[in-house]
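Teaching assistant's notes for section 4

Start the section by putting this record on the projector. Ask students to predict, before seeing the second block, whether Alpha/beta hydrolase will look compact or extended. Collect guesses on the board.
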Amino acid sequence: MAPPLRRGFSARDGLRLSALEWPGPEGGERLPLLCLPGVARTALDFMSIGERYAGTRRVVAFEYAGHGESERASDAGRYRVEVALRDLLDGMAALHLHRVVLLGTSFGGILAMSLGVLRPGCLAAVAMNDVGPRLESAGLDVVREVIGRDPAFASIEDASAFLQRTLPPIAADEADWRDFAEKTYARGEDGRYHPRWDIRVVEAMRREDPGATELWPLFGALAHVPLLLFWGQESALLTASTVQRMRRERPDMAVQGLPGIGHAPRLVEPLALAALDRFLAAQP
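Reveal the predicted structure now:
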């Protein structure tokens, strides 16, 4: 399997942003699959997805400003949601992603719902990974705890052990946890392992109030597209009651529950892959 291509482009303020791309079939006309990671994740999370569908349709995974190979900003305010959304629109234009099937994990799913308001014509279908229109404050607290600090681990084994202690269950063995740690932390010039994101991202996650964040109007903006929801059934961010309401509002939405898994599924689980296979097979 050939490695993915590294794509670079400039945001409108000149910041250099990055994406990974797995080409589709030559001359193919199927819509590309655009993958958006979580708030402190990178395109590396979609390596398995890219390899799975490469050659059948084009797959592109974005990296937000301050994440992975994308340039870090001088001002932490650059990481606000509205700016990330603007970067996404710039990137879609630069990479000729005019109409896509979108797969968004957590924060990526929030951006997908936002696109439904700002640019509905660019979405042909949306798959959301463990995110919905109600974000529980308890789940957000766990996210903030991890993304807002740099432990500077002495070894990848230490990083893996930290993630196992800190994160919700993700149905992983030791090798899986090590792989996850390698996609989360990178070895720096000092020989220690640091986050693959700018930890000032947490400053952009302003806590407006102690309650849950409600985004139901954004969810309603996806009424025109087919939907698939991946739900880690142990998730503290996406609860059963929110999933039930989503189903009531969109009875045609496909839901794939993942027992014993918290926020967020890695999308390597057999149930998740089978559901994504079915969903993509129905898309042009």
